[in-house]
Amino acid sequence: MSEWQLTRTFASTAGEVHWDRLGHTDRPPVVLLHGTPFSSYVWRAIARSLARDHQVFVWDMPGYGQSEKSADQDVSLAAQGRVFTELLSHWQLEEPLVVAHDFGGAVALRAHLLHGARYRALALVDPVALAPWGSPFFRLVREHAEVFEQLPPPLHQALVREYVGSASGPGLHPAVLDRLVQPWLGDPGQAAFYRQIAQADQRYTDEVQHRYAEITVPTLICWGQNDAWIPPERGRELAALIPGARWEPIAHAGHLVQEDAPAELTAVLIAFLHGRHGH
């Protein structure tokens, strides 16, 4: 599964970021943001599809995937929102199309509302955006991160596999599950897994939730109808808060829509993005 390698790096304020670009440089730019505990790998099929007509930017957030993982690293939503703003500047993208999943949705929303990042259009896929968030398991780990960090590696691996697997409705292909779990194993992966949960704090969405009515860019909200992590009702709630937001439920998909229904999600995104870049 080594076919998804990010070949470029950027020194962000929260550690080295691995990123890459697909497609022709003269095409409209679209940036893909992953969620937690995932990486840009979940976008691989959709990134390649979008690259036919777009310049597609993919990146692993600090503390995730192929990017830097280090002790005392700030991998909070606050840090990721700043890093995304730094990257947009580094890439010289003034008004890209943005597609963001899960925790990446909160990163994109914070960058837009707090750091002045401008988008041509915004597509949110099962985003973390409204309180309350965090499953009972997530809260348990956050409150006892230093205990979980000491789990024997085989138990840690079993826990991460079970957790990541539950993001899918129909279930993940074993090779895909292996690839999603791999960055969280060993050193520094195991500590990094609990670090990102320990730093997950709802106050980072509370800071922007009351401002969603200020969003004026065209917004699409897609949601896997079988999402066991964040119920689709949350998505409807969010769509009602963002003026003119389009609501698009995706059948037979869980939280990880990119893996469960890639063709359906790609079709929805292409239709939305093509209507937004004036080509």
UniProtKB/TrEMBL annotation:
Alphabetical list of InterPro entries matching this protein: AB_hydrolase_1 (IPR000073), AB_hydrolase_fold (IPR029058), Carboxylesterase_BioH (IPR050228), Epox_hydrolase-like (IPR000639)
Coiled-coil ranges (or none): none
Keyword terms of this UniProt record: Hydrolase
UniProt xrefs under Pfam families: Abhydrolase_1 (PF00561)
Domain AB hydrolase-1: 28-262
Keyword set includes Hydrolase: yes
MF GO annotations: hydrolase activity
Source domain of life: Bacteria
Matches recorded under SUPFAM superfamilies: alpha/beta-Hydrolases
The UniProt record lists the keyword Amino-acid biosynthesis: no
Protein name: Alpha/beta hydrolase
Organism: Streptomyces caeruleatus
